[in-house]
Amino acid sequence: MKKKIFVKEENLRKKSWFKEYGESILIAFIIAMVVRTFVIQAYKIPSGSMEPTLLIGDHLLVSKFTYGIRIPYRVFGIYLPGGGTTLIPISSPKRGDVVVFVFPQDHSKDFIKRVIGLPGETIEIRDKKIFINGKQIKDPWGVYTGHQGGEIGQIQEHFGPVKIPPNSYFMMGDNRDHSYDSRFWGFVNKRFIEGKALILYWSWNSLAPDLLHKVRWNRIGRVIR
Questions:
Q1: Are 90 and 39 a contacting pair, CB within 8 Å?
Q2: In this structure, are residues 67 and 196 in contact, taking their beta carbons and an 8 Å threshold?
Q3: Residue 180 and residue 162: Cα distance in Å, rounded?
Q4: CATH number assigned to the domain with residue range 41-219, chosen from the 4 options 3.40.50.2300, 2.10.109.10, 1.20.1740.10, 3.40.640.10
Q5: Residue 143 burial by Cβ neighbours in a 10 Å radius (0-12, 13-18, 19+)
Q6: 168-214 pLDDT tens trace
Q7: What is the pLDDT at residue 6?
């Protein structure tokens, strides 16, 4: 009789152990999903359109709440009803912010660019200079590495003037000669903006000759401006 009671107690302890750790893992998963969806998310840079600000292989953290608490546009590839709707407004994107957004022409892709034009402004590019409402603005971010001919070159040197619709933004990559941005596919509605880029937490140069130089140590912890 005592042996049977002992066995039952052992089974209860095992069930309690599995239940306790199972609940802990589930809670941790839910918290991680909430943080990823509403607070902060990690991204990796796959292209050179934002060089030299962001390099291929940079890993960065993006704030999901800087511009407000919103219904996610998609979660794990699933599009949500009312996705992108702001529930609690906090702020709006400013000129110069580096943001991640859903690509308007393919909602399965995320792009990262810099905000250049704001809602209601008239933007024009003349001789690679940016004019907002007829006045040239300072552009400390843009880098031109070489002239691209044909239609691409014409768009780089001259664009607009065109008025930016309400709740929409004009995005440009810092690597102006090699960025597929609003000059080509138009504006980004605010509901597509997923968050503001904050900081680099890792950077990996796959083209480096050896393992020692593959990690870009001097970029880790760099604030994105």
A1: no
A2: yes
A3: 18
A4: 2.10.109.10
A5: middle
A6: 999 999 999 899 999 999 999 999 999 999 999 999 999 898 888 89
A7: 47
Query: Is residue 69 predicted with pLDDT exceeding 90?
Result: no
| Catalytic sites, residue numbers | 49, 113
Backbone φ and ψ of 142, nearest 5°: -70, 135
Domain parsing of the chain, residue ranges: 41-219
- Helix residue spans in the chain (DSSP H): 2-34, 150-157, 182-185, 211-214
* Per-residue pLDDT, 212: 82
pLDDT (0 to 100) of residue 18? 66
Are the C-beta atoms of residues 155 and 183 closer than 8 Å to each other?
Answer: yes
Say how far apart CA 63 and CA 41 lie, in whole Å. Answer: 7
DSSP letter, residue 174 = S
Which residues touch 216 (CB under 8 Å, ≥6 apart)?
A: 55, 57, 58, 203, 204, 205
